[in-house]
Design goal:
By secondary structure, this protein is an alpha/beta fold. The chain has 13 helices and nine strands. The chain binds S-adenosylmethionine (SAM). S-adenosylmethionine binds next to loops.
């Protein structure tokens, strides 16, 4: 059963100062749908080149202080093979919108991973593309796509993005991805500049309409060299409240405790799981370039030092009452 509170109740829940009952309801639903399972995704940030100029993002094209890098196709595939040995069964390939990786290149990478490890899921997070490109990626074997809508409010969207981008196109991309058959992830930042409570309600209403399989949210964190470098960071508490609300409204969903959450609080990731999240994304990007994927300042990263089910991360998750599993971690069926 999905629960959809009205706008007034949503605003009360988003700003709740004593969230214990909200957390309890969310955790109960999460256990009903996913038990104590936590799915892990091996994150590979393969390029920090980006043609876009999103005002909040540290790797925006206009940030000339960023040292740019690209991983080679073979290196990306080798990282997934390594990750497979550690127990990862899903890989998330993320980058800025980098024209150097054309459709053929992306498809070669997908096919390379799927040929070596057909039981793995490949998730892409590479931005807005024509429908035809999405179709090629799907046919090559990618099955999931993360594309946060960022904000569902037209005026707010315009304040966060350059004129070359539009909310209409972002939404259309999400619909195209769904139509093609991808498991789709949308989401937004919490506390991005100019965001209001009404904007957050609009985000939840948009998600209700889209019914995504995955929902990624995290606090806005200012990034040096961007127009928003001096803006305040988003609230941990509000982000956790929103994770619980998402679990209650979309009990079936795959919801990550994001890197941004872990970056604003050392316990952020575990707090995220306790609030209703059921996915973690350890970073498999090589350490020498990981720090260059600087979408915001003081970015933390979860590292899985041993294997997925045996290491300090799995111990931490176990101590919080959950269990990392070796599994593709597909979404449970929902309408
Ligand atoms: N280029 C792809 C895209 O647009 O979907 C993927 C990479 S993009 C850097 C991934 C996500 O990082 C964005 O969807 C955005 O929500 C998040 N992000 C960017 N800058 C951020 C910031 N300053 N604070 C928190 N999250 C941020």
């Amino acid at each position: 059963m999905n629960i959809f509170p009205d706008d007034k109740e949503l605003k009360r829940l988003i700003t709740l100062e004593d969230p214990a009952p909200l957390r309890e309801t969310a955790d109960k639903l999460r256990r009903e749908w996913y038990g104590t399972d936590v799915y892990v995704r091996g994150l590979i940030e393969f390029s920090n080149h980006c043609k876009n100029n999103c005002r909040y993002c540290g790797i925006r094209a206009g940030n000339t202080s960023v040292q740019r890098y690209r991983l080679a196709e073979e290196e990306i595939i080798a990282l997934t093979s390594n990750g497979y040995g550690q127990g990862f069964r899903t890989f998330v390939l993320q980058s800025g919108e980098d024209p150097a990786f054309d459709d053929e290149s992306i498809c070669r990478i997908i096919r390379g991973i799927k040929t070596s490890h057909p039981d793995c899921a490949v998730t892409l997070s590479i931005g807005e593309k024509p429908e035809e490109s999405y179709r090629k990626y799907f046919e090559a074997g990618a099955s999931r796509y993360l594309l946060r809508h960022e904000t569902a409010d037209e005026a707010h969207y315009r304040r966060l993005h350059p004129e070359t981008m539009s909310l209409g196109n972002r939404k259309q991309c999400l619909r195209n991805l769904k139509k093609i058959g991808f498991q789709v992830g949308a989401g937004f930042m919490v506390g991005s500049p100019y965001q209001t409570l009404d904007n957050l309600v609009a985000d939840l209403r948009f998600l209700q309409e889209l019914q995504p399989d995955m929902i990624g949210i995290g606090p806005f964190i200012p990034a040096k060299g961007t127009p928003f470098e001096n803006e305040p960071q988003g609230s941990l508490q509000m982000t956790l409240n929103l994770i619980s609300i998402l679990r209650i409204m979309f009990p079936y969903a795959l919801i990550p405790a994001t890197t941004a959450l872990g970056s604003v609080d050392p316990d952020g990731m575990i707090l995220g799981l306790k609030a209703g999240a059921n996915v973690l994304m350890p970073n498999l990007t090589p350490p020498d370039v990981r720090k260059l994927y600087s979408i915001y300042d003081n970015k933390s990263s979860i590292k899985e030092e041993a294997t997925v089910t045996d290491g300090s991360l799995s111990e931490l998750v176990r101590s919080a009452g959950y269990r990392i599993v070796i599994d593709r971690g597909d979404v449970k069926s929902h309408s």
